[in-house]
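Q: Dihydroorotate dehydrogenase (quinone), please. Structure only.
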Amino acid sequence: MYKSLIRPALFKFDPEKVHYFTFDFLRKFCRMPGAVPFLRSKFQVDDPRLEREIFGLKFKNPVGLAAGFDKDAKLYNELSALGFGFIEVGTVTPKPQPGNEKKRLFRLREDSAIINRMGFNNEGVEQMVERLKKNKNVIIGGNIGKNKITPNEKAVDDYVYSFEALFNHVNYFVVNVSSPNTPNLRELQDKDPLKNLLNTLQERNAAKANPKPILLKIAPDLTDDQLMDIIEIVQETKIAGVIATNTTISREGLKSENKYETGGLSGKPLTKRSTEVIRFLSEKSNNSFPIIGVGGIHSAEDAIEKLEAGASLVQLYTGFIYEGPALIRDINQKILEKGI
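A: Structure for Dihydroorotate dehydrogenase (quinone):
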């Protein structure tokens, strides 16, 4: 029903407005008596064989929601009723910021893709903390970034601020230095500034009574040499793992008219490259750290490919928008069928 009726109706309107509309609808729907059990009966797959213990956390299933969908942690409890094993919120910054000017979100229907240049629009970490206090046992990842006005030489301060603010309210952290929509942010992926950033966060982490897993989210546009640097950095800084991958700046092979809009591309065109990055990291590191696979998962088979390439968990974003919540159920059922 989603692909035949709901999606065609929603896709007639501006994608950012549709996002807020569906958020509001899901929030109100879940307040109705019996609504949450109904959603769980439709989309959630409960089976102990789906459970995963990764970087010290126990996930009820390996299918999560990627960052960028619930930027301000407004709907994570309701979204978890759709069958997700974990929810990643953010990217959040220390101070609120409006993001880039609209229009900044574009559907590429012929390519089953999205281009966004949102620019870390969010209400700030303090607002997120207040919402996360209402968590009903959902595993939460906190995706942190820097404010647009913060120069790169002071970026570490922004990451530390959000790390400290969120520490008691998330289960793991994700350091986002790979979004193409904040000026000069990707320069922080260079070896020396990245090691400095991660080591600083790890020092803070080690001082805690119960340290939290810290992961690094990387771009799909890195070269093999840069990916080898990532492996070295992960092993040197002893962070918990990598999320592969963020959106791409490549426009290769696209068919849609608006393919040259600036911003990060996500969806089906990213399927192959993100899996290649996962396989490269897994093989070259001898599976020495966990990888969360994200990018172009539009079917259960796409998710299986990423798991077989070396991912421990997977995340959805654009595929969730194009395929609907049944995709979560289908992936979990396929994992059980394959015995992965």
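A: Brief note, in case it's useful. The CA atoms of residues 111 and 254 lie 6 Å apart.
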